């Protein structure tokens, strides 16, 4: 936090006053910098911290030059230990941003998000080993800093990664224990019913659930639904990975939503397996993240601006529904159902 706090302080010092800000932008333009400005940190936005650090590190020499011209002294900017931490945080927040992006968007299930988090927790073992060996294959900013300074404190950085990994383990320990429960909607027959958390869904009878699972196991008609579901989810995940590698984020939004595929599968299962369906729908109702909630607040701030001060709560609610819903009305069908006026 000491690195982040100082970066925010320096950025605010440059950008808070219009004259300082204009002079700094002019300096960047004069030296043909790859960037035309710094970024302000916003605590509300997930990706803000990593982007601020990355931009600050890229413009560091120009920042030092500008501060010296203003007789502003920050000894940390010349301290190798502080600079080492800065470049380390640039790389680690970049990895965290990649995780955050995978957790965003509509249609993700709690299981999918948990798997992304657990995968990142395992990746931190690779990061720690990378730093211990000194190869820094996954730390490009830190590697570039080492080339200029010849030495970094690998032991300190490795301990920082291990500490972060331990914090991840503690934070998500309860979710890890419930992975069998979260997997039920996708692979119901691969799970031991005794491992399911029945207390979360009081309307489900465990004895009846076990009987239904035994009954459906040899029904090829219904089991084919789950095989098709697995194939569809694999195909979506494969396409998403390809599009993410090519940075085609808008195309990812057009892919089928995993939760919708799972819902459609369970809707096709007959009500004779009501305990199974109730349990599956209960698991699917769990929110994997606060992304949708944050999206609604962002949309509300945009819709209810100072120019729409007379907007009523009912109208605002209707506007929000239109903004965040994935429902696409059939306009032609709706228009055809409306009775035409005789005069026309």
Automatic annotation (TrEMBL):
InterPro entries, alphabetized: RNaseH-like_sf
Designated name of the protein: General transcription factor II-I repeat domain-containing protein 2A
Organism the protein comes from: Zoarces viviparus (Viviparous eelpout)
């Amino acid at each position: 936090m000491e690195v982040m706090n100082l970066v925010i302080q320096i950025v605010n010092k440059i950008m808070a006053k219009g004259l300082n800000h204009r002079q700094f932008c002019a300096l960047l333009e004069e030296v043909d910098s790859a960037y035309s400005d710094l970024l302000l940190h916003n605590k509300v936005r997930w990706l803000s911290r990593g982007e601020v650090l990355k931009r600050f590190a890229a413009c560091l020499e120009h920042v030092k030059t500008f501060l010296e011209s203003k007789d502003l002294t920050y000894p940390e900017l010349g301290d190798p230990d502080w600079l080492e931490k800065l470049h380390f945080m640039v790389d680690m927040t970049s990895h965290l941003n990649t995780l955050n992006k995978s957790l965003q968007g509509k249609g993700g299930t709690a299981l999918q998000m948990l798997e992304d988090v657990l995968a990142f927790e395992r990746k931190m073992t690779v990061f720690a080993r990378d730093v211990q060996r000194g190869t820094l294959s996954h730390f490009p900013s830190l590697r570039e800093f080492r080339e200029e300074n010849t030495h970094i404190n690998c032991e300190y950085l490795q301990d920082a990664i291990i500490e972060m990994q331990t914090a991840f383990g503690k934070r998500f320990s309860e979710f890890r224990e419930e992975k069998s429960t979260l997997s039920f909607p996708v692979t119901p027959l691969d799970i031991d019913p005794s491992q399911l958390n029945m207390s979360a869904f009081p309307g489900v009878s465990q004895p009846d659930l076990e009987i239904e699972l035994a009954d459906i196991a040899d029904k090829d008609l219904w089991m084919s639904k789950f095989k098709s579901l697995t194939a569809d989810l694999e195909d979506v995940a494969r396409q998403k990975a390809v599009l993410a590698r090519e940075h085609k984020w808008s195309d990812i939004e057009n892919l089928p939503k995993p939760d919708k595929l799972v819902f459609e599968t369970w809707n096709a299962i007959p009500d004779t397996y009501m305990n199974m369906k109730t349990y599956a729908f209960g698991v699917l109702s769990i929110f994997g993240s606060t992304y949708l909630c944050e999206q609604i607040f962002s949309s509300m701030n945009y819709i209810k601006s100072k120019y729409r001060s007379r907007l009523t709560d009912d109208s605002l609610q209707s506007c929000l529904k239109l903004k965040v819903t994935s429902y696409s009305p059939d306009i032609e069908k709706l228009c055809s159902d409306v009775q035409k006026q005789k005069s026309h």
